[in-house]
Design goal:
Length: 267
């Protein structure tokens, strides 16, 4: 059962400080958001936010992870991502009274900072720079959602899986914002069952593709952990369907450099 934690205001402030975009805002703004924020704990499998319901809160994971998902009336289940600490969630939703298309479910025991949308809108609307940042953030999210829709319609399962791996390896919720961490510090924290739920196929199909990726030297597997071993190889796999934009290629090249540097340091 969801439990509000009232004696951990320091956790709220620390979570906001390390959150994408918001963590770089002026100290007085972060202090106002921290004062209004609440810390909640959830157990594995517990609904944090119900799909289809409106929300007037920003959600930030302090510890653990959430699943962005929805189960439809016909029994079919759709999942879009495993969400990690430091990502401001449902930023778009607080600007309207429409229900969220996907809800949030606790992937395991976790704690979440909840910031009232009214407070967030007030501090953002009073500062043009912050408003521009939020607008850019929402724009990137929409662009990523559109690309995801295109992939589901047009791309091969191998291409989709490669992109899902890259997305879940890197620290930012938007592909263009930050390079992934080194290969020994960022194993892919997502199961084959979850990948199958995201891509709408069977776990067995995911396993077959991953075995081929491992054989080709694109990934390394250690039990349930997966590490990307060759970003440029994954890019080549992705481009079998359609060439990527030059800026996207530059990201992969930078990630490959990060990977090789970390590998050299580890040997």
């Amino acid at each position: 059962m969801a439990t509000r934690v009232t004696d951990k205001k320091g956790v709220v402030a620390a979570t906001i400080n390390r959150t994408h975009m918001i963590g770089n805002w002026p100290e007085d703004v972060k202090a106002e958001l921290s004062a209004a924020g609440e810390l909640w704990r959830y157990s594995k499998g517990e609904t944090v936010l119900q799909a289809g319901e409106p929300t007037q809160s920003i959600w930030i994971i302090a510890e653990g992870s959430l699943i962005n998902e929805r189960t439809y009336a016909n029994g079919r289940h759709m999942m879009t991502a495993v969400l990690r600490p430091g990502w401001p969630l449902k930023v778009t939703a607080i600007w309207s009274d429409q229900g969220v298309p996907f809800g949030l479910t606790a992937r395991g025991d976790c704690s979440v900072v909840v910031i009232p949308g009214e407070t967030f809108r007030r501090v953002v609307s009073s500062d043009l720079s912050l408003l521009q940042q939020v607008t850019s953030f929402i724009g990137k999210q929409y662009q990523q959602d559109i690309v995801s829709l295109q992939l589901r319609t047009m791309a091969s399962l191998e291409c989709q899986l490669a992109l899902i791996m890259v997305f879940h390896m890197q620290p930012s919720m938007h592909l263009a914002d930050n390079a992934p961490r080194g290969p020994e510090t960022s194993p892919l924290n997502i199961t084959q069952e979850e990948m199958a739920a995201i891509l709408g196929c069977s776990r067995q199909k995911i396993n077959v593709i991953m075995r081929q990726m491992e054989h080709d030297g694109l990934i390394r597997r250690d039990g349930r952990l997966v590490r990307i071993a060759d970003y440029m190889g994954l890019l080549e796999l992705i481009e079998r369907d359609d060439p990527v934009e030059p800026d996207f290629r530059k990201m992969f090249e930078a990630w490959q450099d990060t990977l090789e540097t970390a590998t050299d340091q580890a040997t």
